[in-house]
């Protein structure tokens, strides 16, 4: 697969050391002073100029040819097993090699393992390590922006493979530092010899195994070669598309990355993408035992064999902080949809005499801890009966409500808060309210992400630590 806006022959710069450590790999014919085709609107006269025809052939044309050839090529079971095994190996070349080793430096590898991953990654035919990792670093740095090479904000299909078949303006791809890649001799060699690597590891090697192993040359070419490349490419493309569209966001929802086991199965464990974008230098994508991440298991196994070392993991404390913060954010969003009653500071202040007068005039008002509630619509539904709730109308029912007669439940306090209509001014009732606040001094009122006060169970203004004696409650 050629790099966007490049021809296959232009992918190997003649002087790697002289190339910029932050710029995208350029076509040798690219002139930044000239307008790029992407700066022109697509019209009936120029639409074909916007298409990267080489990638169309590589991503769409050749797989279609392979599917046609499969109609006349019997699939032998040995070839099927080898094609699947080689799919897994070349997939690891991308996930464990291109991605977690070179793009994110989440672990270190010995030279033999690096050579294996560079060869397998080449067999996946997804570009050189240098080009792939550079774009992926830009994707992380500029997620969901115009500088993101495969932003899902431009559409699911675009993020899947549209960014490959449509030419991209190199000036619009975000800058990233790839100094470490330019200093890695294996990365440099593979980049300079990318076409040879692709032909050898993508087509010749899998065909040789089938041909020399059990005489199935054509099956090796079609199934272990062409169609296997198509499947592993589509799996990788799902990380750019499906992993930003399907699933949950347990760590952060400000950007599009998501976690889902289906994406993980398709992508050899890369589906826990919300975690990955929050903790990109962690060699794991899945952090619990039941989550599917064969890439993580492979890296761990290589460590046991002495092939990998310095496996990076974020501290569990930091991971859990992110999870808790996101849970709190979701709770805040849910809390905002609920009726917690009119805030006390927005209620009218009513004198005791006016409160008593309105109650005598027939309004079912009950004062609890200095807050006046209209319980008229609730009397008939009161679980304790009408008589008990009627006995508190026009009186200070603080003691009645807080254990003098019945110590009401948390749900009762929450329900009562939705009936607030005023706050008492002066008199012992306000002192009761103040006392309630003093007795709840260990319960701090905090605000949610929207600035609204959080009322936790047991901290409602109508709840006091100990029943307060009241003459009216006697």
TrEMBL record:
Residues 1-25 have a biased composition (Polar residues). Its main location: membrane. It is found in: Membrane. One of its GO terms (biological process) is unsaturated fatty acid biosynthetic process. SUPFAM superfamilies: Cytochrome b5-like heme/steroid binding domain. Its cofactor is Fe(2+). GO terms for cellular component: endoplasmic reticulum membrane. Residues 26-36 have a biased composition (Basic and acidic residues). Its EC number is 1.14.19.1. This is Acyl-CoA desaturase. It comes from Pseudogymnoascus verrucosus.
């Amino acid at each position: 697969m050629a790099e966007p806006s490049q021809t296959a022959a232009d992918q190997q710069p003649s002087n790697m050391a002289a190339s910029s450590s932050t710029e995208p790999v350029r076509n040798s014919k690219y002139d930044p002073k000239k307008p790029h085709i992407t700066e022109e609107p697509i019209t009936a006269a120029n639409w074909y100029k916007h298409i990267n025809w080489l990638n169309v052939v590589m991503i769409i044309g050749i797989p279609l040819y392979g599917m046609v050839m499969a109609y006349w090529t019997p699939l032998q079971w040995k070839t099927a097993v080898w094609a699947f095994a080689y799919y897994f190996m070349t997939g690891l070349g991308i996930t464990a090699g291109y991605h977690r080793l070179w793009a994110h430096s989440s672990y270190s590898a010995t030279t033999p393992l690096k050579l294996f991953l560079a060869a397998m990654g080449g067999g996946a035919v997804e570009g050189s390590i240098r080009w792939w990792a550079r774009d992926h670093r830009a994707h992380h740095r500029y997620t969901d922006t115009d500088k993101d090479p495969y932003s899902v904000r431009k559409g699911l299909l675009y993020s899947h493979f549209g960014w490959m078949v449509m030419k991209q303006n190199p000036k619009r791809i975000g800058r990233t530092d790839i100094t470490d890649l330019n200093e890695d001799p294996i990365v440099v060699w593979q980049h300079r010899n990318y076409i040879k690597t692709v032909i050898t590891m993508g087509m010749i090697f899998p065909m040789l195994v089938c041909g020399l192993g059990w005489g199935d040359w054509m099956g090796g070419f079609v199934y272990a070669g062409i169609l296997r490349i198509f499947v592993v490419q589509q799996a990788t493309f799902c990380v750019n598309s499906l992993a930003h569209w399907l699933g949950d966001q347990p760590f952060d929802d400000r950007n599009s990355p998501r976690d889902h086991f289906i994406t993980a199965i398709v992508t050899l464990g890369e589906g826990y993408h919300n975690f990955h974008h929050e903790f990109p230098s962690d060699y794991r994508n899945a952090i619990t035992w039941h989550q599917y991440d064969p890439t993580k298991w492979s890296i761990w196994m290589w460590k046991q064999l002495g092939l990998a070392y310095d496996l990076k993991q974020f501290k569990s404390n930091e991971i859990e902080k992110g999870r808790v913060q996101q849970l709190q954010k979701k709770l805040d969003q849910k809390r905002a949809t609920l009726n917690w009653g009119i805030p006390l500071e927005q209620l009218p202040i009513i004198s005791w005499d006016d409160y008593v007068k309105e109650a005598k005039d027939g309004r079912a008002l009950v004062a609890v801890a200095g807050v006046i509630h209209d319980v008229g619509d609730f009397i008939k539904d009161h679980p304790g009966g009408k008589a008990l709730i009627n006995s508190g109308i026009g009186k200070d029912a603080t003691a009645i409500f807080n254990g003098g007669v019945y110590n009401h439940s948390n749900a009762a306090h929450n329900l009562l808060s939705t009936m607030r209509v005023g706050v008492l001014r002066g008199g012992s009732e306000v002192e009761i309210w103040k006392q309630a606040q003093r007795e709840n001094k260990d319960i701090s009122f905090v605000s949610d992400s929207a600035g609204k006060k959080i009322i936790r169970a047991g901290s409602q203004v109508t709840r006091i630590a100990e029943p307060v004696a009241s003459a009216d409650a006697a």
